[in-house]
Design brief:
Order of helices and strands: EEHEH
Oligomer: single chain
CATH class: Alpha Beta
Strand order of the largest sheet: 2-1-3
CATH architecture: 2-Layer Sandwich
Number of strands: 3
Radius of gyration: 17 Å
Shape: elongated
Number of domains: 1
Strand content: 5-15%
Structural class: alpha+beta
Number of helices: 2
CATH topology: Alpha-Beta Plaits
Length: about 80
Amino acid sequence: MQKAFWVVGGTKAGVMTKRGKWAFEKKDDAEAFIKTNGGTLSSFDDVIKSAYTDMYEDTKMIREKRKMKKTQSMEHKH
């Protein structure tokens, strides 16, 4: 995995996260992906850091949505 060429972000939806992280065996394939979908060529360390950041942001977003649903549900009961 550390030898892969990584792309972070872009317009293609991520898998289970808001921001996609994609691995490619060849740099040319990663660069072609970027031309089509956007994103940034990244190192493995950058991908790991972005995964931790995304986990925090995605969890925060989920918690806020749950809180809003709970509030709306309580308002409809009254």
